[in-house]
Amino acid sequence: MTPRQGKRIVFTGGSGKAGRHVLPKLLARGHKILNLDLVPLPNPDGNGLNPDVCTLKTDLTDSGQVFNALTSHFNFGGLNDGKPPGPPDAVIHFAAYPRILLVPDNECYKANVVSTYNVIEAASKLGVRKIIIASSETVYGVCFGEGDIDYEHFPLSEDDDVNPMDSYAISKLCGERVARGFARRFGNDIYVLRIGNVIEPHEYARDFPRHVGQPETRKRNAWSYTDARDLGQICDLCIQRDGLGFQVFNATNDTITTVEPTLKFLEKMAPGTSIIREMGEFEAPLSNKKIRDVLGFKEEHNWRSYYSHSP
Ligand SMILES: NC(=O)c1ccc[n+]([C@@H]2O[C@H](COP(=O)([O-])OP(=O)(O)OC[C@H]3O[C@@H](n4cnc5c(N)ncnc54)[C@H](O)[C@@H]3O)[C@@H](O)[C@H]2O)c1
């Protein structure tokens, strides 16, 4: 078997909740990573720093730092090549304020939009042909919306018109538009991942008794989720699949976080919301059909493997 050719990937925000699980998956697939973050990447066991990934402390809201970091060596080993490195094969941009109520709304909006613009602009102008950016389930407008809002319909798909009202989701939607414009201008691949509520391995035991036992608390997440490790697989599939131009992908797991089948549950919990196509028996309302069909995603971490609900 021919060994798999790993790519040189600059990853932003790798020290965060999602990145800490995505990076090990990418390393295991043979990729080389440089992490751009404000804080270093810890070891998977939480002790010390990760020896396999160098973190360049970079403030992504500063365009000069972004251009500079994208042409950096990945580690001291790069000096042995005897020439300065070129731009990376791919950039994956996860760094952000990941929700509202961390900083004032204007700061969340400004930092997220400016960072995403800076990363996409620098990568595109330096000739990077593959850029992947983290967007969010929140663009569907319910998650951080004011009041008890109904979804337009189910399943939620990448083709839906989206009109969120909160500053975080609007910042993510602006990032999607920047991606679309730059992909048009540079002809590169820019893939947007609309990530669901990210679940780390330890969170199944801690959070799923409530998620599954009190499903009325999960409407804002459309009774869907994203396993942090499966998100690593999704990123790797995006790296592998070239030539799709601008794309939006719901980056979620396969199934609904309820014990009841999807249609039966939605009829009861969202009676006024129409179902616009046939859905799988347990298909997640924030559907990942497109990543399964287009990228060949096969989830490895279904919540039912980690938590079994007994009423
Ligand atoms: N956590 C979720 O449930 C969720 C859901 C949907 C989408 N997302 C998106 O996924 C991505 C990752 O989310 P997360 O939960 O890992 O967030 P996180 O806050 O845990 O990690 C984000 C990382 O970005 C870094 N960062 C922030 N501002 C920066 C800047 N100006 N320059 C450099 N680094 C900076 C932080 O230091 C942190 O390590 C984000 O874009 C978020 O919006 C997250």
Automatic annotation (TrEMBL):
InterPro entries tied to this protein: Epimerase_deHydtase, NAD(P)-bd_dom_sf
Signal sequence bounds: none
Name of one Pfam family that matches: Epimerase
Domain NAD-dependent epimerase/dehydratase stretches: 9-212
Gene3D superfamilies the UniProt entry points to: NAD(P)-binding Rossmann-like Domain (3.40.50.720)
This protein's name: NAD-dependent epimerase/dehydratase domain-containing protein
The organism's taxonomic lineage, starting at the top: Eukaryota, Fungi, Dikarya, Ascomycota, Pezizomycotina
